[in-house]
Amino acid sequence: MRNFQRQRVVLVVVAVLVASLMGCAGTAKQSGPFTVQELEAMAAKHVTSVTVEQAKADLEAGKFAVILDVREPKEYKMGHIPNAINIPRGLLEYKVQAQIPDQNAPVLVYCKVGGRGTFSADVLGKLGYTNIVNLTGGWLAWVKTGYPVE
User: Fold this and answer.
1) Positions marked active-site
2) Can you give the pTM of this predicted structure?
3) How far apart are CA 90 and CA 23, in angstroms?
4) Is 84 helix (H, G, I), strand (E, B) or coil?
5) Under CATH, what is the fold of the domain 36-145?
């Protein structure tokens, strides 16, 4: 009888270990696949964002060393925030260090509506940049307020 109980305990322990390794135990969320909205929400947890009004005030106060437009070049050419540099989201990891070598420089990141900006700000943080801020609402929010554009 004792041998049976020992085998039963071993089987229970093995079952618990297998279940935890497979993600079946506890309340852990499955590790994918995710929707774009879920990925953006995960990235946003690591990103500081500001409103258009706050960004404008910070720009006027000289708080940003770099304004980074992560839209595509054709979007940038159609209009951008004055003095912004353009590094498309798809090339950011490859080009940012050459264009923004100071990883402590205060950078305002924006895209069209905020999604690419959020992903970009998150990636910049992972690359070691320490002072990144995303523009909530992006380019469209900036234009809607009537703030200056180039």
Assistant:
1) 111
2) 0.78
3) 32
4) coil
5) Oxidized Rhodanese; domain 1 (3.40.250)
